[in-house]
Structures are given as C-alpha cells and as structure tokens.
Amino acid sequence: MYDIDQVRAQFPILSREINGKPLVYLDNGASAQKPQVVIDAITRGYAEEYSNVHRGLHTLSTIATEKYEGVREVVRRFLNAPSQDEIVFNTGTTEGINMIAYGWAMPRMEAGDEIVLSIMEHHANIVPWHFLRERQGVVIKWVETDANGDLDPQAVIDAIGPKTKLVAVTHMSNVLGTVVDVKAICDGARAKGVPVLVDGSQAAVHQPVDVQEIGCDFYAITGHKLYGPSGSGAIFVKRERMAEMRPFMGGGDMIDQVTRDEITYNVPPMKFEAGTPSIVSTIGMGVAIDWMMDLGMEAIAAHERSLRDHAVARLGGLNWLNLQGRSAGKGAIFSFTIEGGAHAHDISTVLDKKGIAVRAGTHCAMPLMQHLGVGATCRASFGLYNTPAEVDRLVEALELCHDLFG
C-alpha cells in the first residue's frame, strides 16, 4: 500500500509555505526534493565520517571508502547492470555523456561519420555531439516525433546508415513526458552493429530500469533528480565499450603508475574517475536510491500514473490550455502555454504567488521547442510525493492565469 502521507512526511521542505501558501512543488523534472534520510546521511558524512577515499588507511578514510564504494552495488542493483565494474561515478548525466563523447566517440569518429539523435534530447545529449560536429566534421542526424509527441523506434532504426557510429536517445522526454521504447531501438541498432547511449535522467526516477533487458551500451543517471544530492551521478558502460574507451580526465586514482616518461592506467571503472570525487554527494545518492528501491519502483510508477491520469483529465478540460505532448503512455510531465499570448515566465510568476513551483523556459531543449513551434513553455513535473489535490491546486491557479492573461 502506497501511503502518500507517510511518504510526504519524510520530506521536511514540503511542510513549508511559499508566499503564505502551502508549497506545491512541481519542478521535479529539474531537481527533486530530498527525504530526511538523505539529509541525515549528508550531515553525518560531513559531521562525523568525512575523509578522502581510497588513499588512507586510517579509520575515517576506511569508513568513507566503504560507504562510497558501496554505492556502486546500489546503482548496479538499481539498473540491473551485470557488474559493479560497469558503473562509473560522476557529477551527473552531463558529465557522463561528455565522458562517452570524449572517451569513446572522439577517438573513433572522423568527418562524415554520423550520430543519430531524437528531436526530444536535452542539451546535455546534444551539445557534446555538436562538439564533435564542430571539431571533427561528425554529422548529426535528427529523428522527429509525431503529432502526439511519440518517437517511432523504427524511424530511429531507419535513420541508421553505413556511417552511423552511435545512437543517443532519451528514455523519457523532460518536456513532453514521452516514454521512448529504447529496447526496440537497441535491438534494431545492435542488428546493425551500432551502439546506443540512453539518457536515463528522467526515466530512472519514475519507473524500473533494467539495462540488460534494454540492451543499451551506455545508460546515464543523475543523483539530484533521484531525490539525492546535486553533484552526484553515474553511468552504466557495457564492459566491451569500456575496453574501447580512453580516459576522459587525468589525475589521481585513475592511474596505476606514473613516471617521468610514461603512465599506466588503473583498471575500470577507476580508470574513468580522476581526482577526489564528490564523496558525500555520492554516498547521499546511494542512500536516496536505496530509499526509492525500498519504497518500490513499481509502486512509485503506479502512484505517478494515477497522478498523470488525474492531471490529463483536469488539464485536458481547460480548452484554453495548450498542452505539448499527448502520448498515451507518457510520464507525469506536462508542458503548456495559455491562449492569449501570456509568456511562460508570467504564468510561472503567478503560480509562484499561489505557492506552486513550476519551470518556465525552453527546458534545455531548444531544438524540440523549435520543432513544436513555441518559444517557451511552463512545465509541471510530478514526483513520488505529489498528490491529486496538488493537481487541483495547479488547475485553480491556471484558471486565475487565464482570467489575467487570457
């Protein structure tokens, strides 16, 4: 039984008021709030257990190292990866994708080689590939969504040509909420000998993920969306791909031996983790993921589907609200504008006066905004602690916006 009151009680920030109104936090797509267990782990990490990892034999270093390295198994279970050695820690999905761009793609791509992207990609899964376009002449091929915001897996597979070296695709759109059939894409790409990188920043928060079932080569997640600290993240890298990669950054921990004339590298995944890491943030991410798995990813998904369905019914009844993306199986993410020309920033400001936090702008997805023909939208993105009553408060506030701007 999913006890929403018990879930909400674990998030201290949800008890506060904004502008004299109870907080309704609907900006989870940007970053989620943190449960007390994560806050406590961070506080304890700095107040009682802090030390650098891997480099010390003293008690505090041993404690920090054991907790930090223990997160690797947590992430492995969360993604059902075959081995801990295929989990690389980083500061989030952006760094993870850049690591693949610099460490795997750059050494093996030349002018004319292609990368296939969907139009729904976040800038974090666009800009690193533009670097390769600018610097090495790599070609980016785009696959667009249909009128409902769905991405046809076969269209992605059909875009793969003899010069395609990589497919990079989101698992869930941060703007439309569209859930992509990444398994079908991976199956088709594998048949053509092309690796697939999946941006799991949104999907991993809302549904179970099994990288072995999906069959992807890379799967990136970010801690701050997973109810954990900012500055934490991880990427699954299939063992075969790891063997093909060169280090992304150089420094401590990623080397075995250093002399005046040469270096030898550490074994993966350490080979791709240079310098002092975000120790406490990574430990906090592990606590957050454990907490989510204890709550149950299927239970979280079911709760959010009920929120989505309620929001679809209530928002769909506002004939002056322009909703972007109407995929039948979408996640609980809603981007919208109001007829009459009100700017998304103005709508967001009015909602904030009612204690409702949403995101306004292009959501780091400018190519998608251009595809949709909008300059900016407001986005309400729901999480595991949101309620149907908060959907109703959003609708009431939007009706006020329509009265003001419509």
From TrEMBL:
Q: Which family does it belong to?
A: Belongs to the class-V pyridoxal-phosphate-dependent aminotransferase family. Csd subfamily.
What Enzyme Commission number(s) does the record list for this chain?
A: 2.8.1.7
Q: Reaction(s) catalyzed by this protein?
A: (sulfur carrier)-H + L-cysteine = (sulfur carrier)-SH + L-alanine
Q: What is this protein called?
A: Cysteine desulfurase
Protein species of origin: Limimaricola variabilis
- What PANTHER family does the record point to? CYSTEINE DESULFURASE, CYSTEINE DESULFURASE 1, CHLOROPLASTIC
This chain's function reads: Catalyzes the removal of elemental sulfur and selenium atoms from L-cysteine, L-cystine, L-selenocysteine, and L-selenocystine to produce L-alanine.
Q: Which cofactor does it need?
A: pyridoxal 5'-phosphate
Which lineage?
Answer: Bacteria, Pseudomonadati, Pseudomonadota, Alphaproteobacteria, Rhodobacterales
Give any GO molecular function from the UniProt entry. cysteine desulfurase activity
**Matches recorded under SUPFAM superfamilies:** PLP-dependent transferases
The record places domain Aminotransferase class V at 24-394
Q: Which UniProt keywords apply?
A: Lyase, Pyridoxal phosphate, Transferase
